[in-house]
Amino acid sequence: MAKLTKFSNNNTRSLHGKSCFLIKRGISVFLIAVSLHTFMSLNAQTIPENSYKLKRVVIDAGHGGKDPGALGRRSYEKNITLAIALKLGKYIEQNMPDVKVIYTRKTDEFIELYQRGDIANKNHADLFISVHCNSNPNKAIRGAETYVMGLHTDEKNMAVAMKENAVISLENDYTLHYEGYDPNSVESFILFSLMQNTYLEQSLEFASLIQDQFRTRAHRPDRGVRQAGFIVLWRTTMPSVLVETGYLSNATEEKYLLTGEGQSLIASAIYRAFREYKSMIESRSAFSLEPVSPADSIRFGVQIASSRKPLAKDHPLYKKYKNLMAIRDGKWYKYVTGSSNSYEEAKKLKHQVTLSVKDAFVVAIKNGKIIPLKTALSEIKQ
Length: 382
Prior knowledge:
This protein is α/β, with parallel strands linked by helices. It has helices at 29-46, 77-95, 113-122, 155-165, 186-193, 200-216, 231-234, 251-258, 260-285, 316-320, 343-353, 373-381; strands at residues 2-5, 21-24, 56-61, 100-103, 127-134, 144-149, 222-228, 240-247, 298-307, 325-329, 332-340, 361-366, 369-371. It has 2 domains: 2-50 and 288-381, Alpha-Beta Plaits, CATH 3.30.70; 56-282, Zn-dependent exopeptidases (Aminopeptidase), CATH 3.40.630.40. Helix 2 (77-95) crosses helix 9 (260-285) and helix 6 (200-216) packs across helix 9. The longest helix has 26 residues, at 260-285.
């Protein structure tokens, strides 16, 4: 018996909100076994050996040394960020031995902002995570938010970024490292924030996963994903986020962030988001082969579902379809099984899949993205 969710009216499968399942009865055990064997065989033959793997992550504990960061009644930001960063790194090291964890600092020392990005760049990191705590004159404000490098669209975001960037005034000869950025000039910040992050889409994806985990795992008030011009993110050449784990200006939140349990829950939430992001990125990249020509770079698969949010790896679809791939297409995550450079093979697979998923259809993938089927077939003919 197969459980699969229904397609919405626009011919995409909606998994948003509560899952609704279509139960297909009367399929013989033999037929299901043959179908699954076909799926796994096709996938095993076509998944590339050189698929992208997320191997290195840089964890940056904000502030340090002569720079205490935000101040609470009983705390310095630099101490809390270091504790969370070390716990996060430990979770990754213990559970993902294939990932190398690199720290910008492991002790109470002052690291200049440009050096933090350089550490990530020199180590060819695949992801950069900068851990911070926030503060606000309004002591009632609490919650966690995650920033990516991008256009400032809100004065509050700009104020947070300017406060974090102001640390460069503690550095020697900071004018030599930041292309004329003046930490005291709003005009300078606006010009600086126009420098868009090349990896904005991936950064936004990871940031969203972090906020989801903060809300569900750590039970923190969710203040959302935001964009602003942070120097520490601008210096990096990979997907990067800056996580504001909470407000030290709020007495309740400061107390929470000072406890080992609170720090562990925050670190665990970020770790879970990292694990999900890694799985998502690596699954998606399985479609990205080394192209010999435009036609050779096109792959065909069968779309069986789509979702506004990425599915958990323990979702029934992943158990039913081995090597199921999630491909980001606009606001949707589309789930595709099979990967073949032959359109005819994909049609055969579709015939098998529709025994249990009536509305499944063939899609074309190029460079990790879904493209119109007509366009793909035209390129192959040429």
